[in-house]
Design goal:
Elements lengths: L1 E6 L6 H12 L4 E7 L4 E6 L6 H10 L7
Antiparallel strand pairs: 1-3, 2-3
The structure holds dioxo(di-mu-sulfide)dimolybdenum.
Dioxo(di-mu-sulfide)dimolybdenum binds next to α1.
Length: about 70
């Protein structure tokens, strides 16, 4: 298992962070996800054989948030 960290911009209420946490947790290959709105950070434990950091990043963006380069 590996852990990926992302800066997540645009989470303006607690619904954003809990919704994103739920969306990430539901992805195939994700073991667990924690999203901290105050810190603008997401931490994702994942199985690198089943999902890649770039797809995790894409999922965050698909949920409507920005991940700065
Ligand atoms: Mo809160 Mo976030 O109403 O997309 S859930 S702003």
């Amino acid at each position: 298992m590996q852990t990926a960290f992302f800066t997540v911009e645009g989470m303006t209420c607690d619904g954003c962070s809990s919704g994103l946490q739920k969306a990430l947790s539901a992805l195939d290959g994700v073991v667990s996800a924690t999203v901290d709105r105050a810190a603008a950070r997401a931490s994702v434990d994942y199985d690198p054989g089943r999902v890649s950091p770039s797809s995790l990043r894409a999922a965050i963006e698909d949920a409507g948030f920005d991940v700065p380069a």
